[in-house]
Design brief:
Elements lengths: L4 H7 L7 H4 L2 E8 L6 H7 L7 E7 L11 E6 L7 H15 L4 E5 L3 H5 L3 E4 L1 H4 L21 H13 L2 E8 L1 H16 L5 E6 L17 H22 L3 E6 L6 H10 L3 E2 L2 H6 L4 H17 L5 E6 L2 H4 L1 H22 L3 H11 L2 H9 L2 H9 L14 H18 L9 E6 L1 H4 L5 H19 L5 E6 L9 E6 L4 E6 L2 E6 L9 H15 L15 H4 L4 H6 L5
Parallel strand pairs: 3-4, 3-6, 6-7, 7-12, 8-10, 8-11, 9-10
Antiparallel strand pairs: 1-2, 2-13, 4-5, 12-13, 14-15
Helix pairs in contact: 4-20, 9-10, 10-21, 12-18, 14-15, 14-16, 15-16, 15-17
This protein binds 1,6-di-O-phosphono-beta-D-fructofuranose.
1,6-di-O-phosphono-beta-D-fructofuranose binds next to loops.
Length: 551
């Protein structure tokens, strides 16, 4: 494979390891743990993996053991996140350091490769081209849910065939929940296979006291921030557009918030705040109009607005409408199939409750159609396919026209729309993600070697230099609570939404009015790999603020 000059040089980058993992290690074992909520139910569901202690690696000055060879399998699960390849190379290097005979197998295209026995052995010759690169193409990823005993048994067959002692699942909150269920199942059935999770997702919503951030968030946010910065420079040069920029992140608004802290746009919506304040679409539109009217008074007819992908589901009235639509579409899909757009919308509205029908019919036609047509395999509307940024821009435009008629607004309003998501998910990892991922992988191999199961690889103290990072394992049951999923109460890892009392949000909220009524754009520029540490190694604003560091 021909490589670009940057790829060639970058391939030689040796990610930094925490001091604690550099030589032989031993485990410091903490006290027994409890789940974050619903302790009794979780304990009952995970009798073999509940209450395990937090473990931490410390250097072992007098290593006695000669390590027996063993094999490991890995699965990349869900959406891509920068740094996945370094998790793989970290696991590989640690395995080979423990014993040259150790082997690493990758299951292809996510959990389905595990169930259907599609795999490959990962060797140094193959891995070397992927070190420090973005993407999950080393073995591919997929969204098959690994949740039934039949799937677990099918997977066990190939694990036994390949003499695999442990499986590493690299995924988000749902995949790690499933890793824990699998660990419990294998332990309960005496399968003799360990399961270890690694926290991945650009969305940043798999985090807690022990998992300070999921990998990929840092890089993805820096890619989006670079482009938002470029748009802001354009916007401030031509001074003629309002740019509405939607950012990935399914439910949580961490990405939008991080980009707002980095770029200082004129406005950034935070879904969690919209929900907490029970804001309506009109409230949001009025807020935006207030800003545009005030800026127009100063002669500024331009600005930037960040919109988190999941916003629509956090607006209480829209949430209600979407949940009614999900049921109606599931029940009457065939009836709507042959109808033309206008007729279809009318027919659907006929099944909605009066308030929701009124809201539905008041929406622009394309949005009402997107809400009606695009459902995922679970029957839910796929929020990423809804042009929320266009919806807001159009509604603001209509309201401004009214204000103009009333003599309240004298500006010009022209818009541009953008959606940034896929652009950042496979970017080459920042130094932070390259180091963090390598350490997460290396640490996962050490956890396997120490014999534990049902743990998530945890590397902490992340605002310090990598040498001082703390490495160890957190029992996955510790992060769990019971939640309603598809009508049933299920044990799941608690998702971390933006904390409205947390420092990153508070910092942004304290700047909000100033950002609206001024033009204080920041232009973070592209990711840098070579140069001063303050430029190349700086963690996300979110992490810095959460750790009481200056930004
Ligand atoms: P994960 O939760 O699996 O990490 O995926 C996150 C994400 O990137 C979201 O931000 C986005 O809504 C979704 O994946 C898009 O999914 P797909 O890749 O299937 O289009």
């Amino acid at each position: 494979m021909k490589k670009s000059p940057l790829q060639r040089v970058r391939a030689e980058y040796q990610p930094k390891l925490p001091n604690a993992l550099k030589g032989a290690v031993k485990l410091k074992v903490g006290d027994p743990t409890q789940s974050v909520a619903d302790q009794e139910e979780i304990k009952k569901l995970f009798p073999n993996t509940y209450g395990l202690p937090i473990v931490e690696f410390i250097p072992d000055e007098n290593p006695q053991r000669v390590e027996e060879p063993f094999n490991v399998g890995i699965i990349l699960s869900g959406g891509q996140a920068p740094g996945g390849h370094n998790v793989v190379s970290g696991i590989f290097d640690a395995l080979k350091k423990l014993n040259k005979e150790n082997r690493l197998y990758g299951f292809l295209m996510g959990p389905s490769g595990f169930i259907n026995h599609q795999y490959m052995e990962l060797t140094e010759g193959y891995i070397k081209d992927y070190r420090n690169t973005g993407g999950f193409d080393i073995i591919g990823s997929g969204r098959t849910k690994l949740e039934s005993p039949e799937q677990f048994d099918a997977g066990l067959k190939i694990l036994k065939e390949l003499n695999i002692k442990a499986l590493v699942i690299i995924g988000g909150d749902d995949s790690n929940t499933n890793a824990c269920v699998l660990a419990e199942y294998y332990k309960a059935n005496g399968a003799g296979v360990q399961v270890i999770g690694v926290p991945k997702t650009i969305d940043g919503d798999l985090k807690n006291k022990w998992i300070e951030t999921s990998f990929g968030f840092d890089t993805a946010c820096k890619v989006y921030s670079e482009v938002i910065g470029n748009i802001q420079r354009d916007c401030n040069s031509a001074k003629k557009y309002y740019h509405f920029i939607k950012l990935m992140g399914r439910s949580a608004s961490h990405i939008a918030l991080e980009c707002a802290l980095e770029c200082q746009p004129n406005y950034c919506l935070i879904s969690e705040e919209v929900q907490a304040k029970r804001m309506t679409l009109d409230n949001i539109v009025n807020q935006l109009c207030y800003m545009i009217v005030e800026r127009a008074k100063m002669g500024w007819n331009f600005g930037t607005v960040l919109v988190p992908e999941g916003l629509i589901e956090f607006i209480p009235s829209m949430k209600l409408l979407i949940s009614q639509l999900n049921d109606i579409l599931a029940e009457h899909a065939e009836e709507f199939e042959s109808l033309r757009d206008e007729e279809k919308l009318k027919a659907i509205a006929g099944y909605l409750q009066p308030a929701e029908a009124e809201l539905f019919l008041s929406l622009p036609k394309n949005i009402a159609l997107q809400l009606s047509l695009d459902r995922d395999s679970h029957g839910n509307v796929q929020v990423s396919l809804i042009d929320t940024e266009k919806l807001l821009a159009d509604m603001v435009g209509k309201r401004l026209a009214e204000l103009k008629k009333e003599g309240e607004y004298h500006g010009k309003y022209a818009t541009q729309h953008h959606f940034f998501g896929y652009e950042g998910r496979c970017a080459d990892p920042t130094n932070f993600d390259a180091d963090y991922c390598y350490a997460l992988g290396y640490n996962a191999a050490m956890l396997i070697n120490s014999g534990v199961t049902g743990y998530m690889s945890s590397v902490r103290n992340l605002t310090e230099k990598p040498e001082n990072w703390i490495a160890g394992g957190i029992p996955i049951t510790m992060m769990m609570n019971m939640e309603k999923r598809h009508g049933h109460m299920k044990p799941v890892i608690q998702k971390a939404l933006v904390d409205l009392k947390g420092k990153p949000y508070m910092k942004f909220a304290s700047m909000r009015e100033t950002l609206m009524l001024n033009t204080l754009y920041q232009y973070p520029g592209p990711i840098q790999y070579f140069g001063p540490a303050e430029v190349c190694d700086r963690p996300s604003m979110t992490l810095l603020l959460e750790h009481d560091k200056k930004i």
